[in-house]
Amino acid sequence: MQYFPEVGKIPYEGPSSKNPLAYRYYNENEMIEGKSMKDHLRLSVVYWHTFRGTGSDPFGASTMIRPWDDGTNSVDNAIRMVDVAFEFFSKLGVPYYAFHDRDIAPEGNSLKESHAILDKIAAALLAKQQQTGIKLLWGTANLFSNPRFVHGAATSCNADVFAFAGAQVKKCLEVTKMLGGENYVFWGGREGYQNLYNTDMKRELDHLARFFHMAVDYAKKIGFKGQFLIEPKPKEPTKHQYDSDAAACLNFLRSYDLLPYFKLNIETNHATLAGHTMMHELDYAGFQGALGSIDANTGDLLLGWDTDQFPTDLYLTTQTMLMILKHGGLGTGGVNFDAKVRRESFEPIDLFHAHVGGIDAFARGLKIAAAIRADGRLSDFVKQRYSSWDSGIGAEIESGKADFARLEAYMLEKGEANANTSGRQEMLENLINQFL
Ligand code: XLS
Ligand code: NI
Ligand code: NI
Predict the structure, then answer these.
(1) Euclidean distance between CA atoms 96 and 44, whole angstroms
(2) Ligand 1 in contact with 231 (CB < 6 A)?
């Protein structure tokens, strides 16, 4: 049984191809900076938007009528979706996928029943992984959809809800381990507040840290070796989410002695919602040794929410890949398309168009970024710009030898600082354009 009979395996046909369902740039074995494209990008498809997305929005019902989805929450439906998903991953030629527990398996009438359903679907996923060689990039628990999480999960005012969330994460860690998941993600969808009049922020953050320590301890106990990741996002669904951006996450992790156990999963649309560029978030996480993985998507400049669109802008993918290469790659992470087709793109084939485009945009971004690095003019400029720190007073400051008294003596003798030089922003923007 084929669910996408009109699509074969997506081939690489090179830049001149006119076939909309072929890669023009993603050539998985092509070597760049000594590593294959496949190993640089570690592409991943998400279960939620791709197979569970319906196109509903606050103003209207589902538009995406999927022939494989009977619209029920049944186990049969979930089992069929496993086949659909692996046909999709295989035809696209991606090595990884990612899920929430509740995307792969519907919730039962009790936690016990939910656990049992999850085990059943996980067994089907494992069989498909073994058959196809496709691997799990990360698992995560959905701690935001069910109404019980109305006040949060680990940051709920209700201790029983914290306990429920812990039980759910325990199980999801077991399943992620069983499936060989290379990472485990926490996105705090409802870990934040709408209003400070009713919120004990300190207590909530203490609880969140306690929750993460429990996860670290349990991973040790069961021998789960995957990397823990936190996915920053500043708002939506709550007004203020605690994991608001890379800097806030790292401060939280450092304050609660969690830094050694976590890295970050940086999502483009979340970066822009936080008022940052993706480049900023990646650089910030990267220089702290915390760049773990990325959720590849993009927002819309004219809309202020998480539109999760497929990335097609080559400036964005080039900037993203420049940062990933600069910080030594994604390690166990990957380029995970946490993106959804528009409500108006309701045919199953649109899922292929979207992923093929996103993958090619990243492949091209990777090639452009590598060319910019090989050219060297950009990095030479930056090196030169900071050269006053390489010797003299700059080197004394950086090495910690100089104190304020030394600075005063130095400047009293010198009289005035050396003249500044131009930042040459426009010249550098023009330089980048030479590569696009
Ligand atoms: C939502 C998040 C979510 C996480 C996984 O905005 O991006 O999809 O990636 O829970
Ligand atoms: Ni995400
Ligand atoms: Ni998102």
Answers:
(1) 4
(2) yes
Summarised one tens digit per residue, pLDDT across range 194-216 is 999 999 999 999 999 999 999 99
- Contacting residues for 84 by C-beta, under 8 A, at least 6 apart: 3, 51, 68
| H or E segment to which residue 96 belongs | strand 96-100
Amino acid in the structure at residue 83: D
Give Cα separations from 309 to 253, 337, 365 (angstroms).
30, 9, 17
What burial class does residue 404 get, using C-beta atoms within 10 Å of its C-beta: 0-12 exposed, 13-18 middle, 19+ buried? Answer: exposed
Give which of 304, 188, 193 is closest to 238, Cα–Cα. Answer: 193
Q: Is 309 in the pocket of ligand 1 (CB under 6 A)?
A: no
The helix (run of H) or strand (run of E) holding residue 263 is: strand 262-267
- Give the tokens for residue 59: 């103003």
Q: What is the CA radius of gyration of the chain?
A: 24
Tell me what pLDDT residue 40 has: 98
Task: Verify whether ligand 1 is closer than 6 Å to residue 233 (CB atom).
Answer: yes
Distance CA 249, CA 264 (A): 8
Q: Count other C-beta atoms under 10 Å from residue 128's C-beta.
A: 18
Q: Distance, CA 26 to ligand 2 centroid (Å)?
A: 23
Sign of the CA dihedral with 99 first, then 104, 108, and 111 last: negative
Q: What is the DSSP letter of 327?
A: T
CA of 306, closest atom in ligand 1 = 6
For 10-48, the pLDDT digits (tens) are: 999 999 999 999 999 999 999 999 999 999 999 999 999
Please state the pTM of the whole predicted model.
0.97
Residue 180 — very low, low, confident or very high, per pLDDT cuts 50/70/90?
A: very high
- 222 C-alpha to ligand 2 centroid (Å): 26
Question: Is pLDDT above 90 for 161?
Answer: yes
Q: What is the pLDDT of residue 131?
A: 98
Q: Which two tokens stand for residue 1?
A: 């049984």
